User: Which sequence fits this backbone?
């Protein structure tokens, strides 16, 4: 059935989600700014504008001359740091760039010369950052331990600091400034809230809980006291429409007392998990919501920073919000009332009463923009093959198939689709762009946290362009890396889009087709969004290349490179770092074959420090002894199922298909590896134990 039109709630019902109004400062008597005003001389906030359009009206750098881009300057903002988590996007105001580093320091950098004009040195230790806010002559940043900090925009001097406890962990989420309020999200906790703080002193003006408590709207969608550990945290920054007076927050997956994969103790839809909620900017009053995944058990929350756009649908200009990310679908919603002008259907999905699954899930009538089922491609065919290719021996399923105690492999996966990368709406093409990932996930209650990304799978992705007036894919370009984790898109009036890769390359693509026009090596993985700004009539492209561990772990190259580019720039590219490993690694470190007699013991763990094989049968991910075997070419390796194991075990080599054997307890099998390379294999009894033979 079609999702019904959502009416605006008023009166007492809406008031249940609102905070007292006595602390809200009177709004200035000024015409509200538009959420669609594009970046120009400035790129004043993360997302570019209040609508998170990540679009620049600057047009001098275009398809005809983009190949002339060169480095204007590069600033190693922390003096050459090569470690840490770098997820912050720069903003540009009045010719100055403001950026947070992996250490939590805030740097102000002259946008013309690249010279650091001031630095705020973090006193509370490093934490994950995604961007500062600039407004009212201040720069706003986070401090570890739930601190919000206001700095003088001109000097970096601390103007005030305030600790905000009681609403969940407060870091990671980029800060948004509007009209003397700071919109700040909390994250990764048992229960969390969207907050509006006074920009004058950091005091809480209003809050909105992601998992409602007693007496609050949506509380009855949680079984018993499960709301207390329900998660539903708003861990990406919101969008705002000042003309409508609304702020749009997205809330993350439901967690539950065990993990996000266990819904057995939290029956109900679990509002406002996996939802977008429209609230009044100044009061926090609820106006409407849309839940994209009911009673989620897959950590597939659609938490993208929402994108606001005015588009013509069936001849009528509509104010819409584009919402959706990890599920690989866009839900096009009217941002006034949450209705669906292009249609959304509630579709029956597979059920498991143990998980208390919801009978239907919403699907846009036009379908998604990426695949939602793994491909069972025969071993020995092209390698790596289809991006959705399934690692062997797993139970395979489509999206929203429930799980229990057996791992179920599905796609896009909690690390696929689009995750916390910034999306972009181009005023020039009318298209929405996002980077995405192919990262299949195996869910079951045997897995910790949010599921298993099977060792040995290829983690790739690409960029897709979707027409929000039809919700149909205009083009898709596959790339060698997952682009779902901080790899934001910038679109420009020059009809070019820009996106950075985890190998350090910044790409310029034709906005109409996805054709590559230019690339530049920045020296470290890019986990942020490019921006564009203008100083003294010169237009610049900028990006921060620092790198983070998702999804490539320590193989993603790290750095502290803040780059600016201009036409005719003369600074040379950085040396290319070692690119990240696109295959999910096995658990454990390398062991030389000579140390274990070139033998792998199936379904047993291995202690590398002592060189001993575990004494009990194991289906753990590291249940190969050893998991990583290094041998010279021409070596014969023996795989053994010990006689005191109870079950049949095996070794299925993928994706080359060199061998696929089943061994009873006490049996063995030998294979000679002649070619250099990496050869992954897993167990037929349980696919979780995975090993790798590295042939050199």
Assistant:
């Amino acid at each position: 059935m079609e999702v019904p039109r959502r009416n605006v709630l008023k009166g007492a019902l809406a008031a249940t989600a609102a905070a007292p109004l006595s602390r809200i400062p009177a709004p200035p008597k000024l015409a509200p700014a538009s959420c669609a005003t594009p970046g120009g001389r400035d790129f004043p906030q993360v997302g570019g504008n209040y609508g998170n359009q990540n679009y620049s009206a600057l047009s001098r750098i275009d398809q005809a001359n983009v190949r002339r881009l060169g480095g204007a300057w590069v600033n190693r903002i922390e003096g050459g740091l090569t470690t840490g988590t770098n997820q912050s996007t720069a903003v540009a105001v009045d010719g100055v760039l403001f950026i947070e580093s992996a250490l939590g320091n805030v740097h102000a950098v002259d946008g013309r010369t690249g010279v650091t004009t001031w630095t705020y040195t973090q006193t509370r230790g490093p934490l994950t950052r995604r961007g500062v806010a600039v407004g009212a002559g201040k720069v706003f940043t986070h401090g570890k331990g739930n601190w919000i900090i206001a700095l003088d925009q001109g000097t970096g001097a601390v103007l005030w600091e305030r600790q905000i406890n009681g609403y969940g962990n407060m870091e990671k989420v980029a800060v948004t400034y509007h009209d003397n309020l700071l919109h700040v999200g909390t994250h990764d906790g048992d229960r969390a809230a969207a907050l509006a703080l006074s920009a004058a002193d950091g005091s809480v003006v209003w809050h909105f809980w992601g998992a409602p408590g007693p007496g609050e709207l949506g509380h009855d969608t949680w079984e018993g006291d499960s709301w207390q550990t329900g998660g539903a945290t708003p861990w990406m920054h919101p969008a705002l429409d000042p003309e409508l007076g609304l702020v749009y927050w997205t809330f993350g997956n439901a967690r539950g007392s065990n993990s996000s994969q266990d819904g057995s103790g939290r029956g109900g839809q679990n509002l406002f998990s996996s939802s977008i909620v429209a609230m009044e900017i100044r009061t926090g009053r609820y106006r409407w919501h849309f839940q994209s995944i009911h009673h989620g058990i897959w950590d597939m929350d659609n938490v993208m920073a929402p994108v606001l756009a005015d588009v013509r649908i069936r001849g009528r200009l509509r104010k819409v919000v584009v919402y959706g990310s990890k599920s690989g679908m866009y839900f096009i919603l009217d941002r006034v009332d949450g209705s669906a002008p292009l249609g959304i259907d509630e579709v029956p999905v597979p059920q498991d009463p143990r998980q208390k699954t919801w009978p239907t899930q919403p699907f846009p009538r036009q379908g998604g923009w990426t695949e939602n089922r793994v491909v069972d491609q025969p071993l020995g065919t092209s390698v790596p093959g289809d991006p959705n290719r399934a690692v062997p021996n797993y139970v395979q399923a489509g999206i929203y198939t429930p799980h229990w105690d057996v791992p179920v492999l599905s796609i896009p996966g909690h690390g696929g689709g689009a995750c916390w990368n910034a999306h972009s709406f181009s005023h020039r093409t009318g298209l929405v762009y996002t980077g995405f990932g192919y990262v299949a996930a195996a869910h079951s209650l045997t897995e910790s946290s949010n599921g298993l990304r099977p060792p040995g799978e290829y983690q790739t992705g690409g960029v897709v362009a979707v027409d929000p007036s039809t919700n149909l894919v205009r083009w898709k370009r596959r790339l060698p890396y997952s682009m779902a984790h901080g790899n934001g898109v910038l679109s420009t009036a020059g009809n070019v889009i820009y996106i950075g890769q985890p190998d350090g390359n910044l790409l310029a693509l034709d906005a109409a087709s996805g054709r590559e026009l230019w690339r530049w090596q920045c020296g470290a993985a890019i986990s942020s969004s490019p921006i564009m700004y203008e100083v003294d009539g010169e237009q610049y492209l900028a990006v921060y290349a620092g790198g983070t561990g998702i999804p490539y772990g320590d193989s993603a190259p790290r750095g502290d490179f803040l780059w600016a580019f201009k036409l005719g720039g003369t600074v040379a590219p950085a040396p290319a770092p070692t690119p990240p490993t696109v295959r999910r690694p096995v658990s454990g470190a390398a062991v030389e074959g000579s140390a274990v007699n070139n033998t792998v013991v199936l379904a047993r763990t291995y202690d590398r420090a002592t060189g001993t094989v575990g004494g009990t049968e194991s289906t753990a991910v590291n249940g190969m002894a050893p998991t990583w075997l290094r041998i010279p070419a021409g070596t014969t390796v023996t795989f053994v199922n010990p006689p005191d194991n109870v079950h049949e075990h095996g070794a299925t080599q993928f994706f080359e298909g060199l061998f696929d054997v089943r061994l009873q307890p006490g049996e063995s099998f030998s294979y000679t590896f002649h070619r250099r390379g990496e050869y992954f294999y897993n167990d037929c009894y349980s696919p979780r134990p995975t090993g790798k033979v590295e042939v050199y």
User: Anything to note?
Assistant: Residues 11-15 form the longest helix (5 residues).
